[in-house]
Every structure is written in structure tokens, then in C-alpha cells.
Amino acid sequence: MGIPTAELRSAWASVESRYGSYQLVLPGEPGFICQPDSCDAYCCRAFNVTLDEQEVRNLGETSGLQPAHFLESENGEPIVLPLATPFVLGRREGSCVFLSMELTCEQYEARPNPCRSYPYQVIFVEIESGRALQQGPEVGCKAVEALVRGLVDKRVMPLLLRHDQCPGFTGPPSTEDEWVRLLQETYGRSIGGAGEVVSSPP
Ligand code: SF4
Hints:
By secondary structure, the chain is an alpha+beta fold. It has helices at residues 5-15, 42-46, 53-63, 67-70, 113-117, 137-148, 176-191, and strands spanning 22-24, 48-51, 73-74, 77-78, 87-88, 91-92, 95-96, 120-126, 131-132, 156-163, 197-199. It has 2 domains: 5-35 and 117-199, no CATH class; 47-116, no CATH class. Helices cover 32% and strands 18% of the residues. Helix 6 runs antiparallel to helix 7 (176-191). The protein is globular. Iron/sulfur cluster (SF4) binds at residues 44, 49, 89, 96, 98-99, 105, 107, 111, 115.
């Protein structure tokens, strides 16, 4: 059974105006290949990244730094936000604290989940109201599972989006299987203690 692209487009049409710098991703569109030679690491400058305790531990171990040295901190203590991923990666001169002078990530292997998912994210549109709403893992997982089987969950429609400021969409067109994997991986990271983008450029 194929992916219901007409239903995806319809759900996207109801929320598109609120996602000015994002585009809906459907099967058959160019894949992402990072273009470090022609990009100024926009993603590591433009976004604040939140992370969970495990991600903080990972970065602490690989960098050898105390968390207060790479997290947004106050009086020497990391700031804790009321989010599932409560810590915020620190910034230095307008970019992530781990962005090197050569515009590479100094902690690439331990980079948090939002960095692994960028330039993609998954949102959910409530069918009844036509609004984008956060969903708990139970509803979200069922909707993603239904979609990859070519079905439509009556309550919510997951949408895979890409950030259109990224110049990396230069790969070959995705097959349906590749699109399904991308959707599942992006969504999986977002519920596995993954961080979330808490601010984005217009
Ligand atoms: S951790 Fe690495 S990939 Fe993530 S924003 Fe910082 S420099 Fe970029």
C-alpha cells in the first residue's frame, strides 16, 4: 500500500502558514547530503538545542568538560528548563560552543539528537481541528505506524518536514522505503529522550 500523499498534502495545507521556513517532505524528493564546503554551518548557529541528562553525560565524557562549560549556565550551574530535555547547549559568539573554527562539530560522535535529526523534524496535525499539536508517544507511534503502512490515523497525521534554509537537499530522490526509514528515525529520536529545537529563525 502506498503512502497517502494527498492526505499528507491536505494536512500540511492546514498548518503551512505557521511553518514559514519549513517544507513538507514526501517520497521522491531529493535526499539530504551535508554540504560542509558550501555551507557556513547555519544549523549550528541558528538554533538553540536542548538535551537530556544522558546526552549531557555523553558530551561530558567525550569532551572532558564539566557540563557548566558547555551548557547555558548561571552562577556556575547549568540552567534547567521545564522540558523533557531540560538543558540547553551553550553558545559562543553566535554559534554552538562545539562549532570549531573550521566549521566542524568538535563532538560529532556525541552530538545530541536534534543535531542528528537536522534538517528534519516530525510534527502532528490533529485531523479534527486542522491544528499542529504535540502528541504523546502512544498516539504519535500509532499514527506513524499507520502512515508507514499506507493508512491514515483518524486522530492525527504525522508530517515529516525539512528546514528549507539548509542547502543540503542535493541527494538522489528518496524511494518510499527510504522516506519511511527517515520518518521513523526522525520520530524515534524525538521520543527517545531526544532534544528539541526551542527556537528557530524565521
Ligand atoms: S553539537 Fe555539534 S552538530 Fe550540534 S549544534 Fe553544536 S556544533 Fe553543531
